[in-house]
Amino acid sequence: MTTSTPQPTTRTAAARRPEQADRPERTGQAGRTAPAVAAAPAYVHGYSPAEARRLGDQADALAELLHLGTAYPPGSRVLEAGCGVGAQTVHLLTSGPDVLLTAADISADSLALARARVAAHAPGARVDWHHGDLHRLPFPDDSFDHLFVCFVLEHLADPAAALAALRRVLRPGGSVTVIEGDHGSALFHPHGEAAQRVVDLLVRLQADGGGDGLLGRRLYPLLTAAGFRDVVVGPRTMYADGSRPDLAEGFTRRTFIAMVEAVREDAVGAGLTTAEAFDRGVAELRRAAEPGGTFHYTFFKAVGVNP
Amino acid sequence: MTTSTPQPTTRTAAARRPEQADRPERTGQAGRTAPAVAAAPAYVHGYSPAEARRLGDQADALAELLHLGTAYPPGSRVLEAGCGVGAQTVHLLTSGPDVLLTAADISADSLALARARVAAHAPGARVDWHHGDLHRLPFPDDSFDHLFVCFVLEHLADPAAALAALRRVLRPGGSVTVIEGDHGSALFHPHGEAAQRVVDLLVRLQADGGGDGLLGRRLYPLLTAAGFRDVVVGPRTMYADGSRPDLAEGFTRRTFIAMVEAVREDAVGAGLTTAEAFDRGVAELRRAAEPGGTFHYTFFKAVGVNP
Lengths: 307, 307
Hints:
Two copies of one chain form a homodimer. Helices cover 36% and strands 20% of the residues of chain A. By secondary structure, chain A is an alpha/beta fold. The two termini of chain A are 30 Å apart.
């Protein structure tokens, strides 16, 4: 998943880091900050306290969906590999304030944002920040009790190699937790062909960038192939309809559709679609967030053990 | 969802009734009985006790997924509209042995099979069987306390009209429960284009027959438009990977892939594909049920109240 949070990283747009929509700013193109998206000016600013609270509720709902069951004992050594701008880091620190957390990312800019976010949301929390490539972390073998990897593998050319490299720094008996989305699980009503095409473009661009927007369904074979044991994968679904306008707005529009909109320039620039067709698809997709619409998206959460 | 149970009904093949795979026989073309499907002879017979138990476990897993939360008080008047061959009827009678159950279906042949199934699985249960069209049931207004409708709306040309007709026989304050699948939620790994095409053919044929294989996502707007209130829809996902070979065999292969295979003749006959392309797609799809594969399918369960 991409994000509604600015993400000045060095990734290509098709391989930007995903985060949940817990801040109202627009998703930026990778390497840029919060570009205006003509089709959705209302996303940029102008939030009332009620709207902010509603979005907070939505972010809480998504965080609960993703983090439920993840709580590390006090004093345990936890590595968050690929922490990005820290969206999940703050949740890890909330559920486990006394863990010894190391957060690593390849982007110094993202790490700076993550530090600021943690300072704002979890003041007093102690985090060891590490700037580096998760394929080549400098930590000794068995340095950690637990690994947490969220919305990272989908951006990597060889997620199996990344998992193997991460397993090295996990002690025997330690746990790994991996969370990924799968854009193929995006079901929207009304269901239109133009909308489906822009979702497919998202997957296509991510693949062209060396990633895999359909990675969620692959977690079990990836983790077992990397040598983890007792792997359990569970689908976790966000579903929004007219009974949950907060989720329709916060998740369907501001998280999923915003992620789709963020690839507009790349898709048009690559000649994969026209601006008109793209905008028509996004307009169709937005009907899923209206009162008569529905939206479904499945995340996959995997937990395994290092033998 | 279609079924691994013979279904001699008068429906077209593209609109056959879905049931879960709780019997080992092959799905029949509508109006025929258990035709041999060349590509899957092993499905027809030859079950060992261990295999039967494994399939039973799988059927239990699916029944639990679908029926969890549905339990009617003793003495309550329940209408199962579109009971088909009784696959869900036996579960309703198991969770509520003292309900006053009426089971209705438009197919006399299906009803005969449903009676036999109930006699075998819930001996002593009392069911009022009704042969008739759920759009024009002869019961007086307010005849029932609860409605149960499972895998029925997807086959109807006007599901909203059917829901409105059913609401008439439900007393004010009574509940409605509707369960539907959504073939768009079928995620399979490995993900191949040929496999995706045969899944798309299933949806296409169901649409050509006047149904909607993507109906699950529409439940909320359908029920609210039909006048039900307090509608709550929850996605319920079957997910099978190498850690659950029973589900991979029982659900992925014997339920979902069997349903796809059952439209082979229609798809080829209608000129929508060739036999070779269809078989290639099914072969690709079967890899999702092998040890390195995964499969995901979401059912939608809606509960509402008649105001």
